[in-house]
Specification:
Blueprint: H1 2-12, H2 31-34, H3 37-46, E1 49-53, H4 59-71, E2 75-78, E3 95-99, H5 105-116
Parallel strand pairs: 1-2, 1-3
Length: 121
């Protein structure tokens, strides 16, 4: 919203053939996603490592993952458990697992079970 407003303001203040009323913007981030920002920041600070589970093409997933990554540099984006790497983990790590609003709970549970069964040196 801030970016959209700034673009319209700059167009309005500029002598141009473009009229700010002709600029159309679409907010593609759903309210469920924007409402999770504070929760994800707290969640990401609380754990040593974050595994974020989402489809690679999910806009919402990308936005939510970036929130985690800003707070916790050891955040990893996966779509399938086959993408998980043992070397990401230390034996005493606290692991947080989260996902996009569209990520099925069975996939998050499957991810948690896979991580629990990893043998970490």
């Amino acid at each position: 919203k801030k970016i959209s407003d700034e673009i319209k303001k700059r167009i309005k203040n500029r002598n141009s053939d473009i009229n700010e009323k002709n600029v159309k913007t679409n907010n593609t981030i759903c309210s469920q996603v924007s409402g999770r920002n504070d929760f994800l920041k707290t969640f990401s600070k609380k754990h040593d490592i974050i595994i974020f589970v989402s489809g690679k093409k999910s806009s919402n997933g990308k936005v939510l993952y970036e929130i985690c990554k800003k707070v916790n540099k050891r955040s990893h984006f996966i779509s399938d458990i086959n993408e998980i790497r043992k070397e990401w983990f230390n034996s005493d790590d606290s692991v947080g697992i989260s996902g996009a609003t569209s990520t099925p709970s069975w996939l998050i549970e499957k991810t948690g079970n896979y991580i629990k069964n990893l043998t970490i040196n």
